[in-house]
């Protein structure tokens, strides 16, 4: 039961960071490069690839920090 809660927590953190990053990055891209930039396939791939990478990195860092301060035990 405890391991499933840790996995659920990691998924929630991953989703929250991914959503916040994609909202921020989308508004930045629209103002910097224009609306058309996100309609091209290669640019969409770059956008979502960077979103997944940043979400995974921040999830790892947050989970490591929670383990380091003894909030999580796994």
User: How many domains in all?
Assistant: 1
**Cα-atom radius of gyration:** 16 Å
Mean pLDDT: 91
End-to-end C-alpha gap: 12 Å
How would you sum up the global shape? elongated
Give the helix level as a range of percent: over 70%
> Low-confidence parts, pLDDT < 50 over ≥5 residues?
none
Strand content is: under 5%
Task: Tell me the number of helical segments per DSSP (H or I, 4 or more residues long).
Answer: 2
Major beta sheet, specifics? none
Elements, N to C (H/E): HH
The quaternary structure here is single chain
For the secondary structure, the number of strands is 0
Structural class comes to: mainly alpha
Transmembrane segments: 46-66
Protein name: Molybdenum ABC transporter permease
Keywords: Membrane, Transmembrane, Transmembrane helix
Organism: Mesoflavibacter zeaxanthinifaciens subsp. sabulilitoris
Explained architecture:
The chain has 74 residues and is mainly α. The protein has one domain (2-68). Helix content is 81%, strand content 0%. It has 2 helices and no strands. The mean pLDDT is 91.
């Amino acid at each position: 039961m405890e391991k499933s809660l840790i996995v659920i927590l990691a998924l929630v953190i991953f989703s929250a960071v991914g959503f916040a990053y994609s909202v921020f990055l989308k508004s930045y891209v629209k103002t910097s490069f224009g609306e058309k930039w996100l309609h091209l396939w290669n640019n969409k791939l770059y956008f979502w690839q960077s979103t997944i990478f940043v979400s995974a990195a921040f999830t790892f860092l947050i989970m490591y920090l929670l383990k380091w301060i003894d909030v999580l035990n796994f």
